[in-house]
Amino acid sequence: MKRYGPLAIPFTIYALVFLYVFIRATILSFTHDEALSYELINGNTQIADTANHHLLNTWLMSFFSKLFGNRELILRLPNLLAFIPYAWFAHKLLTLPGKTYLIYPGIALLFLNPFVLDYFSQARGYGLSLGFLMPSLYFLLRSCGKENTSRALLMDLAWSIFFASLALLANLSMLNFFIAALVIFIARYMFLLFSGPRGEKKQLLIFSFLVLLTLLPLLYAYIRLRFLGSTNQLYFGADNFSDAVSSLFERSFYSAPYPVKLSVALQYFVLLIVPVGALLVIAKRSFGGRLGIVTALLLMITIGSFAENHLFSALYPMGRTGIYFIPLFGLFLFYLLIEWNDVLSVNSRKFFAPVMIGVITLPLCFHFLNTMNLRSIYECSPDAATRTAAMKILEDANGRTSLVRVNWIFEPSMNYYFHSRKAPFITTAESTRNAVADYAYEFTDQFDTTGWKKMISFDEVGSALYKRSSGR
């Protein structure tokens, strides 16, 4: 490891990012979808029939809840801990090529996207899927460019598909990655089988058994997706590929006030750089190299999305359902930098890493620092103040039986706070079903304040907490 320079620098970065994620998991308000998952582990079986039910996340939430209680950090602990394998195996992937200073653009690409970090602070399946994506990628890529034995390749296949299966259990949108990784392993094994020595019948039987085992997670995904499709639960997504790509940029920009032209330019860059990477792989005939494998992954996943759209009218992955594209593309760009570095002259290489640090690392560091916040999850910003409002109601009610009029967006998370704080004397009712509540938590532009006294307002959400000023 000495050739990579002091480990203190990258691991300090990982530790600081983890600390940031930890603080957010501790203090951010519980969100609408998280609260629905909380209802699921507390007996609301109807939610099990919705796309909100991320199986592995639900299991782990239930497990930690029974052990340690129902506070936000505890319920988010599975996704928070998923950052550890994400960071460890991302570091291993970045150090595989042995390029000292090019690791820093790689760190920026994989660790400083605020939208990606959101989901390690939230009790949903997306952080878990990213946490298992990285080890799956590591075992897919670690032996690239080396002479493989069938035994070593089988070991990599077993571990990679194991982690990919966990990612799929955490989030069904990982299905195309699972299939693409499996296809790549099958192709690599077939190439090794027909180009190497014969007579490894035992290894072929093991390989066939492992491939058959992959049918189990695929069968689970098929049954689950078919059920969700039949109940019209698969409604989140983009109608076209361009909107899917735009959604990832919009969320990665995290509402930072950058020029629109910058977003457009970066989208064109992404759409052009992947074919450039593919052409470089073809020109160098490095199909089995790391760049070749990651490029194949991106292309197969994209082609799979197009095929699903045309054959089954499936929507394109958008926002959080396509979040795994962000680290995949980051890894693609990192390995593309490695390939560019290798084709440069010795003198040019001296300048390449500093230039890439200036072009990639510094802007991404600036963006991360510019978008850091301890207020909200980007896709769940309406819930930013629900915790404060709920605590204010608990304090003011002081054990009195109370009814809270609440907008449907806030209702699940408001119920979470009352239930987890053991306050059965407070119940909620959606505004359309109730008109004589003691308290109201509503969007200010949708609420008639006649007969209500404002207790506290939340300008960043556009909501306010009210208390009835006249008797029932």
Note the total helix count: 18
Question: Helicity level, as a percent range?
Answer: 55-70%
Overall body shape: globular
Query: Could you tell me the radius of gyration in angstroms?
Result: 25 Å
N- to C-terminal separation?
71 Å
The order of strands across the largest sheet is 2-1-3-5-4
Arithmetic mean of pLDDT: 91
* Poorly predicted sequence stretches spanning 5 or more consecutive residues: none
**What share of the residues does DSSP label as strand, in percent?**
5-15%
User: Total strand count, please?
Assistant: 5
What is the helix/strand order? Answer: HHHHHHHHHHHHHHHHHEHEEEE
Largest sheet: 5 strands, mixed
- Protein structure class: mainly alpha
Kindly describe this structure.
With 472 residues, this protein is mainly alpha-helical. Helices cover 63% and strands 6% of the residues. It contains 18 helices and five strands. It has a five-stranded mixed beta sheet, covered by helices on one side. The chain is globular, with a radius of gyration of 25 Å. The relative contact order is 0.11. The mean pLDDT is 91.
